[in-house]
Design brief:
The protein is an alpha/beta fold and about 300 residues long. Helices cover about 35% and strands about 15% of the residues.
Length: about 300
């Protein structure tokens, strides 16, 4: 590194994972309450907290979120006293989604209140896989480290997936619905359709690079996907299982082709699909295992995904 005095606070889990992949873990002096990977950063001071009760039901979380945003408050609070004490030179945040993590605006406001330091704010705003690669490159450039090896490795893994599905006919590419929230029903967008298509599927209901849209129950029934994958934002495998089961209690659920053929899956969306960092390639491999178990076996089953 060019500067040994670098002190980074990462306020977004994907930012923390990018720093770690670039060999900058030791420079991280603080983190958000959601930054939990890699495990060695869990002893860093926590610089944020949420105004939401995340153990509430999906519908209560959604309503609570809307209420907070309507009152012009942020869902997350920055512990300015902790930030002040840590004297960061850089703060990594995001400017993509006010629901996902502390917003760029909140960080700017917090930095204005600091008296001892004026850290540089690095804001990530990825919508596609390519944006994530660019973020990795940009962060590497800022801290004077090399991203070539990291990016080559990630891109090589993507290529392997693409090569393995090349021989599939159109009829062998299943229609896939990725459920990002259950109440109200929402589908995963941004980089999710890209992951589905790269893994040998056809993504339904959303546009690559666009925000996640709501989905009407009737639309799900009529389109009748071959495969349904649950990946609720912020939920691990166990919590996702509970959420999915609430949806499967709908009497019409059993009419769905995916339910009849046993092709409904749950994933750890919090660790993988909802984090636009290096583990999006793990997410691609997970999706490939789900869609084409006859071709792929990376060993994620049981920890990152399960059949419902």
């Amino acid at each position: 590194m060019k500067n040994e005095n670098v002190r980074i606070i990462s306020l977004i889990p994907s930012g923390t994972e990018i720093l770690a992949a670039l060999g900058l873990t030791d420079a991280i002096v603080g983190r958000s309450h959601e930054c939990d990977y890699p495990p060695e950063i869990q002893n860093r001071p926590v610089c944020t907290q949420t105004r939401l009760h995340t153990d509430a039901s999906s519908s209560d979380i959604h309503n609570g979120m809307n209420k907070i945003l309507q009152s012009a408050l942020s869902i997350y609070q920055i512990k300015t006293d902790v930030v002040e004490r840590l004297k960061p030179t850089h703060i990594i945040t995001q400017d993509q989604c006010d629901v996902c993590a502390v917003s760029f605006r909140d960080v700017e406001k917090a930095v204005d209140e600091l008296t001892h330091t004026s850290p540089e704010i690095i804001s990530l705003q990825p919508n596609l896989l390519e944006d994530v690669w660019n973020d990795i490159e940009r962060v590497a450039h800022i801290f004077g480290v090399d991203a070539v090896h990291v990016l080559e490795n990630l891109e090589a893994r993507v290529k392997i997936c693409q090569q393995k599905i090349q021989g599939l006919s159109l009829a062998e590419l299943p229609n896939v619905a990725c459920i990002e929230w259950t109440d109200p029903l929402m589908v995963g967008a941004n980089w999710i359709p890209e992951l589905v298509n790269l893994a040998g599927g056809q993504s339904l209901f959303c546009v690559t690079g666009q925000p996640s849209p709501n989905l009407r129950w009737e639309t799900l029934l009529v389109s009748n996907p071959d495969i349904i994958v649950f990946m609720p934002c912020g939920f691990d495998l166990n919590r996702t299982r509970q959420e999915a089961k609430l949806l499967t209690q709908n009497p019409e659920w059993q009419n769905l082709h995916a339910a009849k053929t046993g092709r409904v899956y749950i994933t750890d969306g919090n660790a993988y699909f909802n984090r636009p960092g290096p583990r999006l390639v793990d997410s691609l491999e997970i999706m490939a295992e789900i869609l084409h178990p006859e071709i792929f076996d990376y060993g994620y089953r049981g920890t990152a995904w399960e059949r419902l």
